[in-house]
Amino acid sequence: MRAVLIIGAGRSASSLIQYLLNKSEEEQLHLVIADLSLELAQKKTNNHPNATAIALDIFNEKERRAVIEKAAIVISMLPAHLHIEIAKDCLLFKKNLVTASYISDAMQALDVEVKKNNLIFMNEVGLDPGIDHMSAMKVIDEIREKGGKMLLFESFCGGLVAPESDTNLWNYKFTWAPRNVVLAGQGGVAKFIQEGTYKYIPYTSLFRRTEFLEVEGYGKFEAYSNRDSLKYRSIYGLEDILTLYRGTIRRVGFSKAWNMFVQLGMTDDSYVMEDSENMSYRQFMNSFLPYHPTDSVEIKTRLLLKIDQDDIMWDKLLELDLFNDNKIVGLKDATPAHILEKILSDSWTLEPDDKDMIVMYHKFGYELNGKKVQMDSQMVCIGQDQTYTAMAKTVGLPVAMATLLILNGKIKTTGVQIPIHKEVYIPVLKELEQYGIHFKEKPMPYLGYKDM
């Protein structure tokens, strides 16, 4: 039996583990599921004979190295900043590594040594990053092979709530790390290129500059710009492209409402609020508003944000119970972002029977035989329940499939890499279709961006 070490047994690992367990007999696999919580790891084994749960503190070097040394391959489902020590141990013991996270500078720095040891460190092989890379490169390569020249590439992805579980005015629930949602767009300006002109959107304007998308069978969506779209020119070999834009999908109206929090300063994570532990939700709200001897917190909020009491924006704020003086934050030394996350979790946590939804949308504009054409590609995936979510499925399955391809010697390219080569994306995308993750491609008129 070949030992597959999976470090991290959180929600995103559910579908990954199930897939490998289902393949364990024919592929001769034994899964070692390691997590700080032994109970969580045991739960994910499903009492399968080809799985062992262990408690692992990754900061205990001796323990960590002992389990990595015994593995045939290592999958790290930890938060991105924790991969590097795992990666160094994989290099030490000459083990291949798979993660779903963006390649950090520290990970990239290992590339020469990884290649020297004939190893594969496959990163960004989840959903976004992951399926976005693979589905984009498949079409881009096909366009190039028939002699087309890429003019435009736009890519959008969002983790949302499925229509049947969409029960609040925000048309949104947390399907992934809530903290990432609260901090989205911070830490740098959004950069992209349209018709050869560089565009920049500062964080303060990010949620008021949205694009609209129509997804067949699911209606209208909006998307706000991701931080740095420009880096994908070199990744995808699109150095001469005129338009390149990547964005995050939400239901129409979400961004306008979220912008209220941005303008008030509630998404700030750079300072701690005094006595946050004893602060009420109403006091939290009031702390961002000017003093007035007679106006209530509600009136001050409406005046500052310029919203009328019959505006849907006002109803969205009321729905979150932000003005409740009896609800206590209960978080010590909390930043505004931490407190906002706590408040939103009251309303936006998935219920046991709720389903989530992943929407991915690519636009490819290119010139072929002197004619400009466009093709749009859409993928929608609906989750099963709280455990086997669409997010867990779309992140975990490609990780598991790439792991097996590496284990079976089907991937030959060594080094620190992402899944943009045919040896990875062709088999993974093909197998994902068996699990209902498939793209519908549709020819469209090429519009481009006339007004620059």
Automatic annotation (TrEMBL):
Gene3D superfamilies: Dihydrodipicolinate Reductase, domain 2, Domain 3, Saccharopine reductase, NAD(P)-binding Rossmann-like Domain. One of its GO terms (cellular component) is cytoplasm. One of its GO terms (biological process) is lysine biosynthetic process via aminoadipic acid. The keyword Ribosomal protein does not apply. PANTHER family: ALPHA-AMINOADIPIC SEMIALDEHYDE SYNTHASE, MITOCHONDRIAL, SACCHAROPINE DEHYDROGENASE. Residues 4-120 form the Saccharopine dehydrogenase NADP binding domain. Keywords: Oxidoreductase. This is Saccharopine dehydrogenase. Residues 126-437 form the Saccharopine dehydrogenase-like C-terminal domain. The keyword ATP-binding does not apply. Pfam families: Sacchrp_dh_C, Sacchrp_dh_NADP. GO terms for molecular function: saccharopine dehydrogenase activity.
